[in-house]
Write a structure and sequence with these properties.
6 strands; 118 residues; 5 helices; alpha+beta; six-stranded mixed sheet; globular; Beta Polymerase, domain 2; 41% helix
């Protein structure tokens, strides 16, 4: 398994462990040079959104992956965790609806956790 798939699986599982809602993964490798995968999820409140981001950072750190950049942690409306090949977006419910990244990146290929683990 390549590193970006491994990172995406770890991030997905960390989000799932913190009860993230509507976790979606989009394979953007064929349509963008930004990375291989976008992972998008949302939480119910600021504390949950921050806990989700913390869990992703902790679990990826245990696996030896360090973020290139993290933005939006203090406001927790939209936390972006940039791991180069995998970019994780953790939203509040309202901001996820507003920005609608799935629509913007609809040319990417939706990927399930099961497909990624193959």
């Amino acid at each position: 398994m390549d590193e970006s798939r491994k990172m995406a699986l770890i991030a997905y599982d960390a989000l799932d462990d913190k009860k993230a809602e509507n976790i979606s993964m989009i394979d953007i490798a064929e349509i963008s040079t930004l990375g291989d995968y976008f992972i998008i999820a949302n939480g119910h409140n600021r504390n949950q959104v921050q806990a989700m981001a913390d869990a992703v950072e902790e679990e990826l750190g245990k696996a030896g992956f360090l973020p290139k950049q993290i933005e939006g942690y203090q406001t927790a409306n939209w936390i972006l965790l940039d791991y180069r090949d995998v970019i994780i977006h953790v939203f509040s419910e309202e901001d996820r609806e507003f920005y609608d990244l799935e629509r913007i990146w609809r040319d990417g290929k939706p990927v399930s956790r099961e497909e990624l683990a193959e």
